Amino acid sequence: MKKARLSYLFAVLITMVLGYSSRSFASVLPAFVAEHFGDALWAGMIYFGFRFVWVARRLSIAVVASLIFSFAIETSQLYQADWIQAIRSHPLGALVLGNGFLALDLVRYSAGIVVAWFIDSCILNKLVRKNHNDIS
């Protein structure tokens, strides 16, 4: 279990670096990448975070939880009370809660979660199971 969690923690960190880089280096990236990949990577990070927490559960649980979480965060952007806007005005608050509802973000999140699930099912989960079987 420890190796599995480390694999997912590593996936979270790599996804965070890629997501931050997609924003920081947007001016030198293709427009499509700069415009869409940050949100997709954010959702992928959420997926890997759920896998870190629920490493022994089915992949589909992480997919559903990630979609619910991501859609809830995006939908919460419709709420514009002063106190939550103050949180969103802080860089960390903006990273977590976002600013302004955009329906296209739901598509970006879905794509990011599907890609993360694909990476997980084709690489990470097989690696985790292989390590688990080697120990048994």
Cα gyration radius (Å)? 16 Å
| Distance between the first and last residues' Cα | 12 Å
Give the ordered list of helices and strands.
Answer: HHHHHH
Largest sheet: none
Q: Give the CA-based shape.
A: globular
Please give the structural blueprint.
Blueprint: H1 2-24, H2 31-53, H3 59-76, H4 82-88, H5 91-97, H6 103-135
Helix pairs in contact: 1-2, 1-6, 2-3, 2-6, 3-6
Detailed description of the structure:
With 136 residues, the protein is mostly helical. The protein has one domain (2-135). Helix content is 82%, strand content 0%. The protein contains six helices and no strands. It has helices at residues 2-24, 31-53, 59-76, 82-88, 91-97, 103-135. The longest helix is centred in the C-terminal third of the chain and has 33 residues, at 103-135. The chain is globular, with a radius of gyration of 16 Å.
Provide a brief overview of the structure.
The protein has 136 residues and is mostly helical. It has helices spanning 2-24, 31-53, 59-76, 82-88, 91-97, 103-135.
Features:
136 residues; 0% strand; globular
